[in-house]
Amino acid sequence: MLLKNIAQVLLPAASLVNAQFSIGTYTSLVGGLDTNSSLLGNYYNYWIKSTSGIWDLTRSALEPTTSTGVYTIPCHGSRKNITIEASRSALVIIDMQNFFLHPGLSPKADAGRGVVSATVNMITGFRKAGVKVLWTNWGLDNYDLITMPPAFLDGFSNNHSSTTTFGSDMGIVPGTNISAGAKLMRGSWNARPYGPLYDLQVEGVKSGTDLYFNKNRLSGLWGAQTPLGLYLQENEITTLFFGGVNADQCVWGTFLDAYYKGFDIVFVEDIAATTSPYYATQMVVYNANLDSFLANSTEILPAVS
Ligand SMILES: *[C@@H]1O[C@H](CO)[C@@H](O)[C@H](O)[C@H]1NC(C)=O
Ligand SMILES: *[C@@H]1O[C@H](CO)[C@@H](O)[C@H](O)[C@H]1NC(C)=O
Ligand SMILES: *[C@@H]1O[C@H](CO)[C@@H](O)[C@H](O)[C@H]1NC(C)=O
Ligand SMILES: *[C@@H]1O[C@H](CO)[C@@H](O)[C@H](O)[C@H]1NC(C)=O
Ligand SMILES: *[C@@H]1O[C@H](CO)[C@@H](O)[C@H](O)[C@H]1NC(C)=O
Q1: Buried (b) or exposed (e) across 109-129, using 16+ Cβ within 10 A?
Q2: Quick one: which of 44, 49, 184, 207 could link to 138 by a disulfide (CB 3.0–4.6 Å)?
């Protein structure tokens, strides 16, 4: 039924090259998989579920996979193992910034600080595997301040006042001599990656394994297009692994937009955390189980490092 519908949608374009276009012709486009019910999607964008339960996300009929960059990774949601192509995948790290994680600015973020070392391991492993690391962080400019809706200005203020919201001087970080800078403005100390992640990010961007994207909402993929979205589109990246803080807010927001925009999404449980109550994490894990792939770094790493 699905294939038939897709075939109908594709018919006008396909008939340009083949007047005899039929469902069989269409499925044969994906490499002789006629009547293969484990095929989901179309030539340009599809998964294959093998009889052994592995979901092949590589779209390798469209563009052959490299022999060195293909990995089968365990997942433990409703869908189990996945096969990915390194150059078509990316690790998206959301908001692991001083603002959200430094003890002086965010004393309650123990869970977030607790996933830093797993995040470092994941980044190191994915870099070795040739998977791009995409730092996606709050990093506002003056245009963002002008166009920021009141709900966000209020939500990020300390006392429901414009004097303490985005762009306001955060003063000295409690317990340090560090000047935190303007709240979540790009280039400020508070908007930098936290602790060891800062050096890791600088080094990765310098060597080209990592990229850094500023965002101006919880989601790094909202609206018509964002810097992160444009990069993914131009580089034909289809499979995204997610980690960061807060799991139920900025990670979840970006994760959902990625899902809505058609990326394969893998929620990596043990590199994501939140300051929200426990049920917020439960909601995220429950839904990641249903709608995407759920993994954790300790399981993935042996496969890719
Ligand atoms: C469907 O395609 C997969 C992947 O190429 C293959 O392993 C499987 O045997 C096919 N199934 C059938 C029924 O042709
Ligand atoms: C699938 O993942 C499980 C762990 O979740 C692992 O034990 C198994 O070997 C994997 N299978 C394949 C074919 O990779
Ligand atoms: C909010 O806090 C700032 C900084 O402490 C202060 O200057 C301002 O008067 C406060 N505004 C309100 C409405 O409480
Ligand atoms: C702040 O700087 C002074 C002078 O460099 C130093 O003695 C002091 O220990 C610093 N305090 C903190 C909390 O880092
Ligand atoms: C990691 O994977 C195992 C299953 O292999 C699971 O039991 C565990 O809850 C997962 N999550 C975390 C955060 O470790």
Answers
A1: bebbbebbebbbbbbbbbbeb
A2: 184
Ligand 3 centroid–CA 167 distance in Å is 14
Q: Mean pLDDT, the chain, as a whole number?
A: 89
Ligand nearest to the CA of 172: 4
Cis? peptide before 216, omega within 30° of 0: no
| In the block, residue with structure tokens 């096969």 | 83
Q: What does the block give as tokens for 120?
A: 């470092």
271: helix, strand or coil:
strand
Model confidence, pTM: 0.87
What is d(CA 168, CA 166) in angstroms, rounded to the nearest whole number?
6
Q: Which of 135, 98, 101 is nearest to 115 (CA)?
A: 101
Residue nearest atom 7 of ligand 1, based on CA coordinates:
50
Q: Do 126 and 168 form a contact (C-beta atoms < 8 A)?
A: no
In the chain, what are the domain boundaries? 89-142+177-304
pLDDT in tens, 179-215: 999 999 999 999 999 999 999 999 999 999 999 999 9
176 lines ligand 4 (CB under 6 A): yes
Q: Ligand 1 in contact with 48 (CB < 6 A)?
A: yes
72 Cα: distance to centroid of ligand 2 (angstroms): 8
CATH number of 89-142+177-304: 3.40.50.850
Q: What is the pLDDT of residues 177-187, one digit of tens each?
A: 999 999 999 99
Strand order in the sheet with 239-244: 210-215, 132-138, 89-94, 239-244, 264-272, 293-295
CB 265 within 8 A of CB 295: no
Which ligand number lies closest to the CA of residue 74? 2
